[in-house]
Write a structure and sequence with these properties.
- Helix content is about 40%, strand content about 15%.
- The protein is of the alpha/beta class.
- The chain folds into two domains: about 140 residues, Alpha-Beta Complex (Aspartate Aminotransferase, domain 1); about 250 residues, Type I PLP-dependent aspartate aminotransferase-like (Major domain) (Aspartate Aminotransferase, domain 2).
- Strand 2 and strand 3 form a beta hairpin.
- Helix 5 crosses helix 9 and helix 12 crosses helix 13.
- The chain starts with a helix and ends with a helix.
- It binds 4'-deoxy-4'-aminopyridoxal-5'-phosphate.
């Protein structure tokens, strides 16, 4: 398999032929490799597998749905799993209108289209250090430096960037946001941000007062606020949604990743009645929109989330990450250790040697996927204290 992979397969952000490890099965929080080793998954398959792998309830939901239908077009047709999921997401978020998209990036594209169609304006404002996806519309609001804008510069829309948001309350920063929104309001369709946690753009945490100020400013100037909760949604930061840290409701919200418990690609873009009514016909309609298997497993995953004591679990993981990662703060190569909810980060001074970090983590039976200057983990909520301790041990060892 590895030889064939090397000959034919692209992996994320890599050249064909980049080194990979073969997984043959996954159960609970463990990945089984082809050589028989088992690794604790410190990545939840990029924030998604919150309940762990091969969960009997999620498996059963898929089997049951499969017996009815795997897929049917959503243009002019509807079905129970999609309708029930939309109703449920509306109740969870307070945003009643739901567009089902096939990936997080597409959900962001749809959010941008909604804002452009609603306002008739086409520029966006965001903050540096963000990440919103790899399609062109989403890429244009990713951090211009670590989003590699220079590779695609002629092909990207030019938006308005505020400096990266601060961790501590900072009136000067809020005033700067105010001045930027005021200067550009006439051309802005929306402000788009990841609430409280900036994920793939740098694993940075910022103060909720920034969100509150953005909500006030966007209301004052008639600009929409888009919350990209694709990484932060469904409890990861300790609240159900990142916006809950600030007590605000955006006009448009994007969800994805953990929506299906990491089983299938599905995302959603939600908006207020006002935005939906203002838009009327929304010009988007993917072939696999509202896929019955994906919406059925998402419904089952939300059932599980409602049943599991996720707040306690996330708090327990937070304290496990805090205790376990403290030792790394003394390493000379480490710039900062930070933890929020079930997210633990070691930021180093120099770019990490990805292969070496992964090798060291695998030695201790843990799967990590560092990038840039960041060794980080978002364990599945199902991870036990002992498993979280193993993950932090591997992170600290790998950062030395
Ligand atoms: N927005 C955020 C905040 C994300 O973290 C991601 C994925 N890392 C995306 C959008 C894009 O989602 P997808 O990879 O499913 O296209």
């Amino acid at each position: 398999m590895l030889d064939l992979d090397r000959d034919h397969v692209w992996h994320p952000y890599a050249a064909v032929g980049a080194p990979v490890r073969e997984v043959t099965a996954a159960h609970g929080v463990r990945l089984r490799l082809a050589d028989g080793r088992e690794l604790i998954d410190g990545m939840s398959s990029w924030w998604a597998a919150i309940h762990g792998y091969n969960h009997p309830r999620l498996n059963q939901a898929l089997r049951d749905q499969l017996d009815d239908m795997a897929h049917v077009m959503f243009g002019g047709l509807t079905h129970e799993p999609a309708v029930l999921l939309a109703r449920r997401l509306a109740a969870m978020t307070g945003l009643p209108k739901v567009f089902l998209a096939d990936s997080g990036s597409v959900a962001v594209e749809v959010a941008i289209k909604m804002a452009v169609q609603y306002t008739g304006r086409s520029r966006l404002m965001t903050v540096r250090g963000g990440y919103h996806g790899d399609t062109f519309g989403a890429m244009a609001v990713c951090d211009p430096v670590n989003g590699m804008h220079h590779l695609f510069s002629g092909a990207l829309a030019r938006h308005v960037f505020a400096p990266a948001p601060p961790r501590e309350p900072d009136q000067g920063y809020l005033d700067e946001l105010g001045a930027l929104v005021a200067r550009h309001a006439h051309e802005l369709a929306a402000v788009i941000v990841e609430p409280v946690v900036q994920g793939a753009g740098g694993m940075r945490f910022y103060h909720p007062s920034v969100l509150r100020r953005l909500r006030e400013l966007t209301e004052e100037y008639g600009v929409l606020l888009i919350a990209d909760e694709i990484a932060t949604g469904f409890g990861r930061t300790g609240e159900l949604f990142g916006c809950d840290h600030a007590g605000i409701r955006p006009d448009i919200m994007c969800l994805g990743k953990a929506l299906t418990g990491g089983y299938l690609s599905l995302a959603a873009t939600l908006c207020t009645d006002r935005v939906a009514e203002g838009i009327g016909v929304l010009m988007h309609g993917p072939t696999f929109m509202g896929n019955p298997l994906a919406t059925a497993v998402a419904g089952a995953s939300l059932d599980l989330l409602a049943e599991r004591p996720w707040r306690e679990e996330v708090r327990r993981i937070e304290s496990g990450l805090t205790d376990g990662l403290a030792a790394a703060a003394d390493h000379p190569g480490v710039k900062e250790v930070r933890v929020l909810g079930a997210i633990g980060v070691i930021e180093t001074h120099d770019p990490v040697d990805v292969a070496r970090v992964q090798e060291r983590a695998v030695e201790l039976g843990v799967w990590l996927r560092p990038f840039g200057r960041l060794i980080y983990s978002m364990p599945p909520y199902a991870a036990t204290p002992a498993e979280v301790a193993r993950i932090t041990e591997a992170m600290v060892y790998a950062s030395a």
